[in-house]
Amino acid sequence: MSHTIMPVRLGQKLTGQVIDVLYNGFGVVMLNDYSIHMANAFPDETVTFEITQVNRKFARAEVIDVVDPSPDRLEAGKDYLLDVGIAPYINLRYEAQLKLKQFQVEKFYAAAGIDANIAPTIGMENPTHYRNKTVVPIKRDGDKLVTGFIKRRTPGEILPLSDYYVNDPVIDQTIGTVRDILNAHHISVFSDETQQGEMRYIMVRRGYYSHELMVVLVAQTATIKDEMAIANEIAAIVPGIRSVVLNHNPRALHLLMSGDNRTLWGADAIHDTLLGIEFEIGPNSFYQVNPQTTEVLYALAARKAELKPTDTVIDAYSGIGTIGLTVASQVKQVLGVEVIERAVIDAQKNVMNNQVKNATFITADAPAQMHRWQQEGLHANVIFVDPPRRGLTNELLDAVTEMRPDRFVYVSCNPATMARDAKYLIEQGFHIKGDVQPLDQFPQTAHVEVVTVFEPNN
């Protein structure tokens, strides 16, 4: 019986030069044709590392010494954030983070065979403590509850945290307060091993402008012990609290949160504003996590769309209406389509609350609805999309190419799938108009937002 001989072995210590950084934030060292991936390793650095995982395609390693550091390296003193993967670029100067993200977008477009100009990444003035939402796991450690993040390579172990570095500090404080209240009531935590226990996660979201705050207790069970007393104690202590919700989310669903919510105290939702439009935000609402750069992002997308007062705009994957409602005042009409009914209900509330007269949101499959609109003779001057990380489906891309809008504005949180979709659109008779614009929606992490505008040829 033959055995594959691996080029490295577990526990082996090696030294090499970092030749690349992957989009997941891991630096790459090559050993002949075999790649070794590791966190906290940046381009052109020489590092000593220890092999921690081996397979046929690549190995993973931990950096144990930086022999020749990059001039862009800094020591932030927060390597615990590397242990949980919250901030893989914590030890890289912010200007270098922006350049690296621009380079990564360039690589994806080049790999797709697309000749495009990738503009410098737009950054933040203060690239820390920006997130308006977080979901954290909870675990019992002896006689106390702990909150934090799951350590890399050890799925059952939570590293206790009080400063998550990327969250609004009030959110971090609230997590600790809620955890301590749950602990005082001796609330049990669900265990995968025993399949017993109540609590699984704590979710907190906070309005950037409104300062309204929502706490969601994510539980394995439909009820938790002392739930009303717990909700009232949270309401009495947490500044800005407007809503305490219990989310029933059995482990078998394999979700961070389900759609099964029950308000224990206060309102069912909180509110915040974006480019002057007020939005109602429920426990499950998709709302960009960095409100400061989201305003820059949507204003940029609107500007690149070259909107006109006579335009008909389609907002596909419209969610609670964030893009459509923020451009409605600049165009003739906005038509939003979203398959998730509760998101459309929220969008319709946002239309009414803001007294917007020229925006309509409907529940439907976006490609099918766009085909119906086309059959009815509707011409869309501009179509906006802001899809999840998996990008656009072929059905949606085909619907766009059939409608042939004057401008197609693609907002993406994953440049790999965006470049894939861009290639498809170009093959179907579209071209990229202007620069491809990266924007740092997620500082200290490996992720980047990108805006690209497409026009039909001729």
Automatic annotation (TrEMBL):
S-adenosyl-L-methionine binds at Q288, Y317, E338, D386. PROSITE patterns: SAM_MT_RNA_M5U (PS51687), TRMA_1 (PS01230), TRMA_2 (PS01231). The keyword rRNA-binding does not apply. Its EC number is 2.1.1.-. The lineage of its organism: Bacteria, Bacillati, Bacillota, Bacilli, Lactobacillales. It holds the Pfam family tRNA_U5-meth_tr. The gene is rumA. One of its GO terms (biological process) is rRNA base methylation. Belongs to the class I-like SAM-binding methyltransferase superfamily. RNA M5U methyltransferase family. It comes from Weissella paramesenteroides ATCC 33313. This is 23S rRNA (Uracil-5-)-methyltransferase RumA.
